[in-house]
Amino acid sequence: MIVGTPAHSAPRVPGLKLADCRLEHPTGLRSVDARCAFLEVPEDPSHPEGGKIRLHVAVVAALSKKAAAEPLFVISGGPGSAATQFYAGAADAFERVRRDRALVIVDQRGTGLSNPLDCDFPPDFETRQISLATVRELTQSCRDRLHARLEFYTTSVAVRDLDEVRQALGAERIGLYGVSYGTRVVEQYARRYPTHTYAVILDGAVVPELAIGPAIALDAQSTLDRILAACARDADCNRRFPALTPRFARLLEAVTKTPRPIDVPDPLTGRNAHTNVTRDQIVAAVRLLSYNSATIAILPLLLDEAARGNLAPLVAQAIMTTRSLADQISIGMHNSVVCAEDVPFFSAADVDRAALARTYIGTQQLDGLIEICKVWPRGVIDADLHQPLDSRVPALILSGELDPITPPANGARVAREFHDVLHVVAAGQGHGQLGTGCVPRLMARFLNAGTARGLDASCTQSIAGLPFFLDFAGPAP
Question: Which residues make Cβ contacts (< 8 Å) with residue 428, sequence separation at least 6?
């Protein structure tokens, strides 16, 4: 359902009683110290006397004894990713910011420890060629197992939660960093609460006016085309991996017609496992490998090996990346967001199915979202969620030149909706610039200045993509 602007004048909530805690990444390889608490909020904000859920809030103190009054809230992507887990894996990139201000990390409702909407899907769900009927059946099962009011796990409600946390911490104004879907949350917070927003950092910006979905396959194809074109322009890469574009197309066609049986060692256990390589496995691997510069560098090598018949390295990448993604995403929260904020806004005019069919992803990803939302409750959204911004909040927008999901054109469009803004495009980079080159230093300078005007971003001109791997030993010396 779509509602008007929710009431945002709730009374001040009691202060949080923080206690020592540790934030852990899902891999278990990284954890960081913090102070944590739970804040109780209504599941349905329009009925505060009704059922409650608990928001998991973590605070990482500033290093300076003279810390800035405005903390930075860290918002993760997905939708469905837990911010505390994201921060645990990216804490080093925030250390420059943390010198001068505290960091606040809130697991968005439906994720992490904030009443997570988790469902156990088959481990090969993302890579197995399954019918839309099976997608609907799995989604119904997920929906029916979750004990939650699923229509209240959307961006519009989460933004209200963030302001409840702000009040509980006694902060008059806050800065916000958001990555990917998290930029939608940040944008809407700045729209709803401009007087309480000090500055925003949008890393891989989502355009407020656009539904996410119809352009995913087109943007992914554009990025792959540019990666393969860059390989063709590189003498060593072109000589080592000739004619990758037509060879990749032939590979996709072949496994679409006849899945190819292979034995591949499990990337974690090393045990051999028999599998039938499907188009979906290859698509998942290529899409996720194009997300950052480190894996972009090895992509031509993996495609060449696969085209020559050695599918195991690419399949192993598909297994690792999709398994990691499944561990980090609360599917129920993801569905509540996309089925309220995106799929209902798909229109025939915006969906060129013929163009989608020409991409390596095809129409299946879009059709899968539509099928999911046929059985998932449509939730609450602000009436202006998809309206353009006209914001005077200072903004730093970060884009990756090769971003396959939020390309630089997104950042350029969003930049026109802020009055005080700097848009930085990092050459050769994929999705999310948080830990890239001098970006952590640039973010800290921006927040300390409180304006993008006059901000010197010349250090980002030295950012470049990694050289292509010519074999599994690495790039040419």
Answer: 293, 296, 401, 402, 463, 464, 465, 466
- The span from the CA of 187 to the CA of 193, in Å, is 10
CA distance 264 to 311: 9
Distances from the Cα of 133 to the Cα of 41, 153, 323, 375, angstroms = 37, 25, 23, 11
Q: How far apart are CA 391 and CA 389, in angstroms?
A: 6
Q: Given CA atoms 159, 411, 199, 384 in this order, what sign does their dihedral have?
A: negative
Contact between 148 and 332 under an 8 Å Cβ cutoff? The reply is yes
pLDDT digits (tens, 9 = 90+) for 350-405: 789 999 999 999 999 999 999 999 999 999 999 999 999 999 999 999 999 999 99
Which residues touch 451 (CB under 8 Å, ≥6 apart)?
A: 199, 394, 420
Residue 49 lies in a domain: yes
Measure the CA–CA gap between 462 and 86, rounded to whole angstroms.
27
Instruction: Decide if 285 contacts 264 (C-beta within 8 A).
Output: no
Map tokens 């009443």 to a residue. 115
Give, for 233, the enclosing helix (H) or strand (E).
Answer: helix 216-233
Reported as a single tens digit per residue, the pLDDT across 181-208 is 999 999 999 999 999 999 999 999 999 9
Q: Is residue 33 part of a domain?
A: yes
**Residue 28 φ/ψ region, left for φ over 0, alpha for ψ in the -120 to 50 degree band, beta for the rest:** left
- Does 67 map to a domain? yes
Identify the residue with better confidence: 320 or 400. Answer: 400
Cβ(72)–Cβ(96) below 8 Å: no
Distance CA 285, CA 242 (A): 21
Q: Which domain holds residue 166?
A: 24-119+147-212+388-462
Grouping H, G, I as helix, E, B as strand and the rest as coil, residue 443 is helix
Rg of the chain over Cα atoms, rounded to whole angstroms, equals 22
Residue 3 is assigned to a structural domain of this protein: no
Give the CATH number for residue 173. 3.40.50.1820
As for how many domains the chain has, the answer is 1
